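PROTEIN DESIGN WORKSHEET
SECTION A - STRUCTURE
LENGTH: 206
TOKENS:
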């Protein structure tokens, strides 16, 4: 059985990554009849639930604890969900992965600390393809405002998070951990972004 591809979507809150992930999922499953799973991080694990509560400011943890919680969630997620699906031959599309840990927890912790916390997970699994939807923070804030209650902890920090994502791609790229990174401009129509993603994925693995 050929292993599925692990395809990760990253971006700021409100960047449209969830919409794009759904569009790719629909294309692969409905038009191509390819087996796929949709996943997201934080996942449904217990550490993931604690991290979500902290993002919504219902709980409060030290920055180091936050990094550990997201990493613990990731470890559970890989072992119990992602790896089994990939091994069954399904492609896994995941809304956020380890790059988010660097981008968000990296606002308060240095990258070496975050690298240490996530090392085991990264040794087990890195994405075959990463799609970064690059949006201007002003644009995403407007979307968050219109569409839903945001993640209060990070909503106002868009510019810093965006810069942190770029630094993370460089930092992990230098360690040879970034394979097939597509950076797509978010200020286009949703359809144009979807076409760009599909074209890239068909050129790089499918
Ligand atoms: P998001 O992906 O937007 O999910 P939802 O739509 O359910 O709110 O939000 C998850 C938040 O968690 C987002 O603000 C980024 C943050 N996060 C981290 O800080 N570190 C991580 O490692 C991950 C995976 C997410």
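SECTION B - SEQUENCE
RESIDUE ASSIGNMENT:
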């Amino acid at each position: 059985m050929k292993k599925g591809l692990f395809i990760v979507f990253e971006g700021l809150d409100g960047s449209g990554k969830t919409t794009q992930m759904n569009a790719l999922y629909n294309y692969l499953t409905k038009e191509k009849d390819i087996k796929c799973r949709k996943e997201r991080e934080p996942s449904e694990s217990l550490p993931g639930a604690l991290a979500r509560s902290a993002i919504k400011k219902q709980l409060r943890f030290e920055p180091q604890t936050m990094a550990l919680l997201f990493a613990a969630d990731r470890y559970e997620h890989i072992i119990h969900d992602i790896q089994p699906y990939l091994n069954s031959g399904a492609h896994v599309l995941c809304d956020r992965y380890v790059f988010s840990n660097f981008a968000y927890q990296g606002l308060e912790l240095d990258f070496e600390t975050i690298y240490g916390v996530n090392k085991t997970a990264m040794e087990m699994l890195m994405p075959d393809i990463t799609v970064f939807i690059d949006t201007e923070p002003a644009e995403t804030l407007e979307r968050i405002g219109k569409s839903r209650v945001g993640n209060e902890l990070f909503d106002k920090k868009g510019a810093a998070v965006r810069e942190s994502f770029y630094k993370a791609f460089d930092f992990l790229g230098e360690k040879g951990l970034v394979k097939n990174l597509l950076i797509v401009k978010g200020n286009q129509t949703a359809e144009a972004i979807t076409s760009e993603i599909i074209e890239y994925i068909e050129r790089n693995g499918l």
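SECTION C - NOTES
The pocket of thymidine-5'-diphosphate is lined by residues 13, 41-42, 55, 70, 95-96, 100-101, 104-105, 151, 154 (CB under 6 Å).
The longest helix spans residues 63-87.
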